[in-house]
Amino acid sequence: EWILSKNKTPTDLIWYIQQDSDEETDCTISYSDSRDQIRAKANKKLEFLTRDGSCLNLDYSDLWLKVSPSCYDETFSITCDKNFISTLIYQPQDSNIFFPPSVTQSASASGSISLEINSRCFGDSFDCDYESSAWATYALLKTNNDIDLFTPYLVAMADSNKRYLSNAFVYLIMGDSNYATKLIAEQEPNNFWRSASTEYGDFYDTALALLALKSSSDQKVRDAKARLLSPVSQSLSGCWETRSQE
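The chain above was modelled as a monomer; its predicted structure follows.
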């Protein structure tokens, strides 16, 4: 309960609403006390018919609606006069990689779709902290809590947080084998993992990688386990001392 109370909305993710239909359609998007009316044209471009609020702006050659960061906690209710689909797409700042949601919603004419930006992270200040978010999400997973709110941030920001061995965390939490493959490929020639900018050392990085890969039978994983347990790695006192970064 204490961990969950510390969640916050990531501001380093950019969110868009994609609105589409097989034919030109007029739609109303309601949020708070505002109602914006847009037209989705036959060429897939959008235009504002009336604009009551300040949460949405046209972006990407008028194909998408960009959501203002101050409105990330809003619920957007959408109705159209033709059959339509609506979905949220997000990307990290300073990146050209987009992440679609797992589900795209559809509705018939005069039907309604509600969209919420379901993304949270953790950190001690106003900003998200990737490492804190990763460990907190893993703790919630191990205590059988729903972690769907926290995975978009961890996945989207993985490439820019490799100093924390982010592929290990994402595989540990998501179970996506693509991240296991990436993680195994990051192993150093000495059978250890060592992030170039980690502050913890190769014993920590290797332990974290093996925690994520504990069920893998890959030879590199077996070699890392043997190396970690070898007398060369473990001191006579039984400790693994932090190794310097050569």
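The helical segments are 2-5, 130-142, 151-156, 166-174, 177-185, 202-212, 219-228.
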